[in-house]
Write a structure and sequence with these properties.
With 178 residues, the protein is α/β, with parallel strands linked by helices. 32% of the residues lie in helices and 18% in strands. The chain has five helices and eight strands. The protein has helices spanning 2-11, 30-44, 94-105, 128-137, 168-177, and strands at residues 14-19, 49-53, 70-71, 75-76, 81-82, 112-117, 142-146, 161-164. The chain has a six-stranded parallel sheet, sandwiched between helices. Strands 4-5 form a two-stranded antiparallel ribbon. Helix 2 (30-44) packs across helix 5. The relative contact order is 0.20.
Length: 178
């Protein structure tokens, strides 16, 4: 399975990372998160990539991943502007979201590898459902979904997906060591 992930990445033209709460400060130490992001940076090295994170802990912005290619639509704990606040201000992430949407448009007809790490059902319309839709619509796309309990995909994405029912951090550790 680890080798299959590496093969899918190697065969892809572009890589899209989806990061969920299995990789958040609520569940993992900052040191482990930075190691996980380091592994992700190594996985996407040399490829056009983008990352969408559901996390508000801002650790991803302390990693070596280029913040220009990261969007955090749920907000930022550092700024105090998070999606769970009554007065959440979407305008802070919208310019980056538009850049992400333009990047996504550039994936049409390309071999797109979507690596989804620890994305559950919290805000499924941000990462989970769009990734499934891309796996269905882009015949050259492949979705790798890693989640402890929710690693399944809809039937229409099964032929171009790999579902791994393990903790995202554990898979990234295995990817780092291989």
């Amino acid at each position: 399975m680890i080798e299959q992930i590496r093969e899918v990445i190697a065969a892809s033209d572009m890589v899209l990372l989806g990061i969920g709460d299995e990789l958040s400060l609520q569940k993992v130490s900052k040191e482990k998160l930075l190691e996980a992001y380091h592994t992700m940076a190594q996985l996407v090295a040399g490829k056009p990539w983008f990352a969408v994170t559901l996390n508000t802990d801002d650790v991803i912005f302390e990693s070596e991943l280029n913040r220009f290619f990261i969007v955090a639509p749920c907000g930022s704990d550092a700024s105090g502007n998070v999606v769970t606040n009554v007065d959440y201000d979407e305008s802070e992430y919208l310019p980056q979201w538009q850049f992400y949407q333009n990047w996504l448009a550039s994936t049409i007809g390309k071999k797109l590898c979507m690596l989804e790490f620890g994305v559950g059902m919290k805000y499924p319309s941000v990462v989970r459902m769009p990734f499934e839709k891309m796996a269905y619509l882009n015949q050259k796309a492949f979705l790798v979904r890693v989640h402890t309990k929710l690693a399944m995909v809809p039937e229409n994405a099964m032929g171009r997906s790999l579902c791994i029912s393990e903790n995202a951090l554990d898979i990234l550790e295995k990817l780092k060591n291989n």
